[in-house]
Design brief:
Its EC number is 3.6.1.9. Nucleoside triphosphate pyrophosphatase that hydrolyzes dTTP and UTP. May have a dual role in cell division arrest and in preventing the incorporation of modified nucleotides into cellular nucleic acids. It is an enzyme of class 3 (hydrolase). Belongs to the Maf family. YhdE subfamily. It catalyses: dTTP + H2O = dTMP + diphosphate + H(+); UTP + H2O = UMP + diphosphate + H(+). The structure is a single chain. The chain is of the alpha/beta class. It has a single domain (5-196), classed as Alpha-Beta Complex (Maf protein). It has helices at residues 18-27, 48-61, 88-98, 133-142, 169-173, 177-186, 191-196; strands spanning 11-13, 31-33, 67-77, 80-82, 102-113, 116-128, 162-166. Strands 1, 2, 3, 4, 5, 6 and 7 form a 7-stranded mixed β-sheet that branches. α3 crosses α4 (133-142). The chain starts with 10 loop residues before the first strand and ends with a helix. It binds thymidine-5'-triphosphate.
């Protein structure tokens, strides 16, 4: 039975990431995008997973709405945080660092609701295969990695760089959707109506 759309509160997505927006849309969650301006820098010596959770909370607290969802993705290799590459040359250096080894992708998730708030972090280990110089050069030059933490997109052509993923795939894409679903359920969001609609 279809339910009335008005019974599903609109979720304010406190993030400008097109990937997060796409995932909310794929779940059928009504949403609007309102990215807050916050300082997203990771403090020197800050644990990367803690930083991801802290930054997600910061984004959630700086957005207004009854139901707010925010996330932040931090890529770390050997304890070193790789942000978004500034240009193709830096993207090339990131890929050289990631080639043939494991790294971590931590995505913090924060929710604010009329019923309470919650924050968590989801961590996935990703292994890159050994990349040839020409691949590093071509991928960096393509620009695909420039707006992404770590300088690659697992959901786009960057998928061919990845040898193994241990943990949640969507955490790498920037939104741990199963954890989001559980958190929404715990906070009393009417999820059955989303799937009924
Ligand atoms: C590693 C990886 C990251 N990413 C993206 C997800 C995030 O959008 C981005 C990490 O940067 P974030 O700062 O988490 O997000 P954002 O700048 O895109 O949006 P906002 O700050 O407004 O919330 O990297 C991928 O899309 N695929 C990947 O494989």
């Amino acid at each position: 039975m279809a339910s009335v759309a008005t019974s599903r509160p609109v979720i304010v997505l406190a993030s400008g990431s097109p990937r997060r927006r796409e995932l909310l849309a794929r779940l059928g969650l009504p949403h609007r995008v309102a990215p807050p301006r916050v300082d997203e820098s990771v403090a020197p010596g800050e644990d990367p997973a803690d930083a991801a959770r802290r930054l997600a909370q910061l984004k959630a607290r700086n957005a207004s709405g009854a139901w707010v969802v925010a996330a932040d993705t931090v890529v770390a290799v050997d304890g070193r945080v790789l942000g978004k590459p500034r240009d193709p040359a830096e993207n090339r250096r990131f890929l050289e660092l990631l080639s043939g080894r494991d790294h971590w992708v931590h995505t913090g998730l924060a929710l604010r609701a009329p019923t309470g708030e919650t924050a968590l972090v989801s961590s996935t280990r990703v292994r890159f295969r050994d990349l040839a110089d020409w691949e590093i050069e071509a991928y960096a030059a393509s620009g695909e990695g420039l707006d992404k933490a770590g300088g690659y997109g697992i959901q786009e052509k960057g998928m061919v760089l990845v040898e193994a993923v241990e943990g949640d795939f969507f955490t790498v894409m920037g939104l741990p959707v199963a954890r989001l679903w559980q958190a929404l359920a715990r906070l009393g969001y009417p999820l059955t109506e989303v799937w009924d609609a």
